[in-house]
Amino acid sequence: MNTDRYNEVIARADRVMRRIDERDGPAQAAARRERRRLNADLGGRLKRIGIGIGLVSIAAIVVGLIMPIGMFGFLAAVGLAIGIAAMVAFLPSQARTATAPAPDLPNGAMVQRFDSYIYRSRAALPAPAQSELDAISAALPSLKQTLERVDALDHNAQDARRLMSVHLPGLIDRYRQVPQAFRDERDGDDISVDERLVEGLAAGRAALGEITEKLARADVNAFETQGRFIQSRYGEERIDG
């Protein structure tokens, strides 16, 4: 078997194994979260369409009680309702676009937006970078649960927010702007563009992991302190019948 044929077989095997790993791995979990976000966005749109059509109908009824609206008035009301439905249905939303989180989002919403961003960016990155994104994605549900209880001005929360809204999206977006033919070139440190991307994502993953651990450890310490207080205050007391 010649070298080209051997490399082709290895590459095909890598693709097959990657698809198998993604069936029940972090990528599949991220896909399920993305579907839930899209379904929630669709549900919100349908609700707004229903409200808009309802308001148009009520307005048409009120006007009809005052004066006859006639066929043209009825058609105008129908056209207005259709226009509202079309505008709401096709209005762009962050849930449908691969954009980085806005810096002013609340903590929980920012984690969700970042989760969607890296899921939608994943296919454009090389396999090693995809693995790093999968590791980041797998840690986001825990980070979201913790950040939702923390003030946005908390030092650790600020670090996490900068990573999710500025640093990691900036790294990914700049990588995607590099032409494919130049991604194998090595810089002064003998590191290629692809390798630099993986190193940056790995550093970001480690930083987010440290922040999650710090915030979770603070919750654990607060729980232990509360438990010790209750034990010391009430543990030896008895209620006198």
Describe it.
Helix 2 packs antiparallel against helix 3. The mean pLDDT is 77. The protein has helices spanning 3-23, 26-66, 70-90, 107-121, 127-147, 155-177, 193-234. The protein folds into two domains: 29-97; 98-233. It is mostly helical and 241 residues long. The protein contains seven helices and no strands.
What would the keywords be for this entry?
7 helices; 241 residues; 2 domains; single chain; mainly alpha
List the uncertain runs.
none
Note the run of SSEs as H and E: HHHHHHH
Q: How can the largest sheet be summarized?
A: none
Report the helical percentage.
Answer: over 70%
> Number of DSSP strands?
0
Gross morphology = flat
User: Using only CA atoms, what is the Rg?
Assistant: 26 Å
In terms of DSSP E residues, the strand content is: under 5%
What number is the mean pLDDT? 77
Derived structural class: mainly alpha
Provide the number of structural domains.
2
Number of helices: 7
Distance between the termini: 90 Å
SSE blueprint and pairings:
Layout: H1 3-23, H2 26-66, H3 70-90, H4 107-121, H5 127-147, H6 155-177, H7 193-234
Helix pairs in contact: 2-3, 2-5, 4-5, 4-6, 5-7, 6-7
Q: How would you concisely characterize the structure shown here?
A:
The chain is flat.
